[in-house]
Amino acid sequence: MATPRIRSVIVTGGASGLGKIMSGYFAARGDIVTILDVDETNGPAVAAELETPDGSEAVRFRKCDISSWEEQAAAFRVVYEDVGYVDVVVANAGVSEGGRSWVVPPFPSATETGANRGEPEEPRLKVLDVNLVGNVYSVKLALHYMQLNTPDTTTGLRGSIICTASNAGLYPFPPQPLYAASKHAIIGLVRSLGPVYGQTHIGIRINALAPAVLKTNIAGKNALFTNMVVTPPSTLIAGLERLLVDTSLNGQVAEIHGENITLRPPHEIVDADSRHNLEEFSRFGYGQ
User: Fold this and answer.
1) Does residue 1 form part of some domain?
2) pLDDT(39) > 70
3) Could you please report the per-residue DSSP string of 69-100?
4) Is residue 111 helix, strand or coil?
5) 183 given a catalytic annotation
6) Which of 76, 121, 126, 281 is most buried, by the most CB atoms less than 10 A from its CB?
7) What share of the chain is helix, strand, coil (3-state, %, to 5)?
8) CATH number of the domain that residue 54 is part of
């Protein structure tokens, strides 16, 4: 029997926060892990920290701004040329809006009413450039390189994509509505692509993690967590592992909360007419 090849994994945003936790999980399993992250100051040190004891250099770091198609395409190309294949992509990189969202008006706002408002400033949309556009780029590149893989003889699968959404993509999140919008979009992307990518001739699974509150650098000061119920990293890893191991899961969203992993189905379809139309979209929406 042939020895299974070592799995090649790409984790975007893997130099800190949830990405570092997940990179550590893959490294501990002996996978070849490539961390793509904009943080070139700490990234190499994180890769060295997560390195396997045998010194096989299985954890690599490459500076990459995922909001740039050129940078991300080049990074994926290097991984493919160095390793020869890509098996798992964790599209994880993300940023917050930083402080009060510009969408949310100051309170109280007596000096910014009526004629005193002045001209509007151009919206800051980095949170969408990274959390949505950058992760769409990751999915596109994962699709390209995974389709070069030979299907698994047992499952017929070529690879697995896992996107980091958030429970802010499942519920209203007034402090940062653009962050919430980006995470809602990732959930919609995953649910829409699952049935397509799961077809036999493609053979790729795509699922999403929707974590609740975990202590990460994206949230800023630790004081923010004082009154929060914090989910431990072990639940995140358990959810990640479930999405990786259960090959029946595709287009699914796993909410990670407390000690629990809950698969969250889409909204119930409102009526028979809508069900009919959605089935029609599914029938002719691909390959026409």
Assistant:
1) no
2) yes
3) HHHHHHHHHHHHHHHS---EEEE-------SS
4) helix
5) yes
6) 76
7) 40, 15, 45
8) 3.40.50.720
Its pTM stands at: 0.92
**Domain range spanning residue 48?**
8-284
Backbone dihedral angles phi then psi of residue 40, each to the nearest 5 degrees = -80, -10
Please tell me the predicted confidence (pLDDT) of residue 175: 87
Is residue 197 annotated as a catalytic residue, yes or no?
Answer: no
Phi then psi for residue 204, to 5 deg, are: -125, 135
Q: Does residue 224 form part of some domain?
A: yes
Average pLDDT over residues 53-66: 82
Does a structural domain hold residue 2? no
User: What is the tally of structural domains in the chain?
Assistant: 1
Average pLDDT of span 160-189: 96
Catalytic option among 85, 137, 183, 197: 183
Catalytic residue among 25, 145, 179, 197: 179
Q: Please answer whether residues 182 and 136 qualify as being in contact, where contact means their C-beta atoms are separated by less than 8 angstroms.
A: no
> Position of tokens 């940062």?
176
In tens, the pLDDT along 78-131 reads 999 999 999 999 999 999 987 767 777 666 654 555 555 667 778 889 999 999
Q: Residue 3 pLDDT more than 90?
A: no
Distance CA 222, CA 89 (A): 29
